Amino acid sequence: xxxxxxxxxxxxxxxxxxxxxxxxxxxxxxxxxxxxxxxxxxxxxxxxxxxxxxxxxxxxxxxxxxxxxxxxxxxxxxxxxxxxxxxxxxxxxxxxxxxxxxxxxxxxxxxxxxxxxxxxxxxxxxxxxxxxxxxxxxxxxxxxxxxxxxxxxxxxxxxxxxxxxxxxxxxxxxxxxxxxxxxxxxxxxxxxxxxxxxxxxxxxxxxxxxxxxxxxxxxxxxxxxxxxxxxxx
Length: 233
Ligand SMILES: [Zn+2]
Fold this sequence. Notes:
- This protein is α/β, with parallel strands linked by helices and 233 residues long.
- 39% of the residues lie in helices and 16% in strands.
- The protein is built from eleven helices and seven strands.
- It has helices at 3-7, 11-15, 36-41, 54-58, 79-88, 93-108, 126-132, 136-148, 164-171, 187-190, 206-216, and strands at 68-73, 118-121, 151-152, 157-160, 181-184, 194-202, 222-230.
- The protein has a five-stranded parallel beta sheet with strand order 1-7-6-2-3. The protein has a two-stranded antiparallel sheet with strand order 4-5.
- Helix 6 crosses helix 8.
- The site of zinc ion has 8 residues, from helix 3.
């Protein structure tokens, strides 16, 4: 049994008995989420292996990172969009765990990410998370931690909506299009740690930058970033 099937809970069989989540074709092996064809079609970036990869370049001059990566290239109308949709909007968390484990598998095979102390999911607004029922980045972290065996820290970094005064103030600043501001609840918990900040898709990096900047304000922290997918601007 490989890592992909071993991390999938038996519940997968109940909800997705014998068909591929990617293409709907019948599955020969019942304990897989995707058929072999879809597995082979997944657009891995291999960014984790390369310093100065396109994700790291996004943050040049904006955020001091140890390393950054995305697992997949994102494109509309592709398998990866189908899987993200299934996960984020249809609430199929097993897909999220499966994809998170794929990130984890890439990270553990690469010494650029071996010194991570804790995973932090990019927080959603509380009302948005309540409505969706989960934070997709937290599910990805849980999938990653199956492979990396590091702590997932949730509910420490908080995302707040700007107040009216803050909105006015921030409109003139370079984080003008960042939705909300970030606050750290418990500095002690992340102090002196190498944090891996995790999100689903990176495009401009503005939100990750704003969140990461708050984390780096805490004494002794270092920061890396991992996202499920990379969408070019
Ligand atoms: Zn398939």
